[in-house]
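In response to reviewer comment 3 from the previous cycle, which asked for concrete evidence that the modeling workflow produces usable outputs, we include below a single protein chain processed end to end. The sequence was submitted unchanged, and the resulting structure tokens are shown without manual editing.
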Amino acid sequence: MKVLHVEAGRHLYGGALQVVFLLRGLRAAGVDSVLACPPGSAIAGAAAAHARVHELPMGGDLDLGLVGRLRRLIRAERPDLVHLHSRRGSDVLGALAARLEGVQVVLSRRVDNPESRLWAGLKYRLHDRIVTISEGIRTVLRAEGVPEAKLVCVPSAVDTTAYAPIAADHPDRAAIRAELGLAPDTLLLVMAAQFIARKGHRTLLAALPGVLARHPRARVLLLGQGPLHAAIVAEARAAGLHGALPDGGPVLFPGFRQDLPRLLPACELMAHPAEMEGLGVALLQAAACGLPIVAGRAGGIPEIVVPGETGALIEPGDATTLATHLDHLLGDPAERSRLGAAARARVQANFSLEAMVGGNLAVYRGLLAATSRT
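The workflow returned the following structure tokens.
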């Protein structure tokens, strides 16, 4: 079996990281994989050990030339099917290229953004199967009229060997705090997300003043990058949360970190008050590291965060309830330990790499078997 994968993302996190995990697992299963991705993207190097990589210009939804470039690649590689992993043009233009070359198409849907029934009816007609990374996304697509027979849920996965808890006296705990200029007894609350509106940074900022007043040893790490980064920094500064105190304030912006397997287990808990979220790879990573999570009740998040079992949920935008849960968990190490252990167990049981690879492979085999019978 040969599969052509198309991933338009340039950074190696979220969906692109899932593609690398999938390519690695497919190679171990004997599948011949080919990857099309943008020139200079981080996934190109990461995937090279698991697939033949073709770097193609990918200019987004209006880059109609992508259809021709992918058609030429399909003719050269002659895959049994095409798997599209991202939007930004590849979901529609990639599907058109495959259809024009007579190759079946699988689309991974990683976001829960609603679409009109008219557009959904036109767009998803191009795909033979749609793999949703959460039941929440499948529910959204079903409500938009996408046929149930096309929908398969295969949750995203996390490497629970790389992402794992550490002991209270592990040297990384002190080292991380020293690198950030923090005292060894600092309590770390972390949020790892793109700086875009739907992730809920502003809800967290609104919740923090009272929480930090009651927990003066706590510091907040807002990890990531994105178009709203400068605005969120400015709002934190205006609220006296960043850059105002002698030590720079209780909210830190360390940027995009490549060392999350080392950093996350050194933290006490994660906040993720998202308003929309397909599933949330960062939440899986944090849970695998044994962190309890307080998050928004959105998209696929409730499939990871179970209230009272692995963390707590809030309604999107509810800063008051968010503050209540953060206040409680920062003050109760035994509860953090209990929830964190259950969070890791849930990830190990439901979001393994083996299950994710096997689920996608079953989709491929089912499509090819159906074709051979016709």
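The chain has 14 helices and 13 strands. We consider this sufficient to address the reviewer's concern, and the full set will be provided in the supplementary archive.
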